[in-house]
Structure formats: structure tokens, C-alpha cells
Write a structure and sequence with these properties.
By secondary structure, this protein is an all-alpha fold. 70% of the residues lie in helices and 0% in strands. The chain has 3 helices and no strands.
Length: 67
């Protein structure tokens, strides 16, 4: 869950991906934000999630699904 949140946080922060306010995805991100920003066991969890998010991005780009 943390990896997926990290994957989506970058494009939404940069406004590359804009979620419609009140949409199901916006509501999900709003609920995940406090859990993911505050709920790390340790700094290595955040680092691992960021690495996994980067790997997911690379796989999607290789398949032509994400630029």
C-alpha cells in the first residue's frame, strides 16, 4: 500500500496527475495520506517503498503504459 501511495504522490504533487476533488481516487489518496506519511516503522520503510515505486514506474514505462 505504501509503495502505491508513493507511486501516486509524486505525479499528484507535481500536478502531472490531477485527481478530481471528491472522486473515488481523491478520497482514497486523502485516506492513505495520514497513514502513509505518519505510519512508517522506520526510515528504511520509506526508502524501500520509494525504490519499489520506481521499479513499478520502470515496468509501466517499458510496457508503454506510463510516460
Amino acid at each position: 500500500m505504501l509503495m502505491l501511495w508513493r507511486f501516486l504522490k509524486d505525479p499528484t504533487d507535481r500536478q502531472v496527475l490531477i485527481l478530481c476533488e471528491g472522486s473515488a481516487m481523491d478520497q482514497a489518496m486523502q485516506k492513505l495520506m495520514p497513514m502513509c506519511e505518519y505510519g512508517f516503522q522506520g526510515p528504511e520503510d520509506g526508502i524501500a517503498a520509494q525504490e519499489q515505486a520506481g521499479a513499478l514506474l520502470s515496468r509501466l514505462q517499458a510496457e508503454g503504459l506510463y510516460r
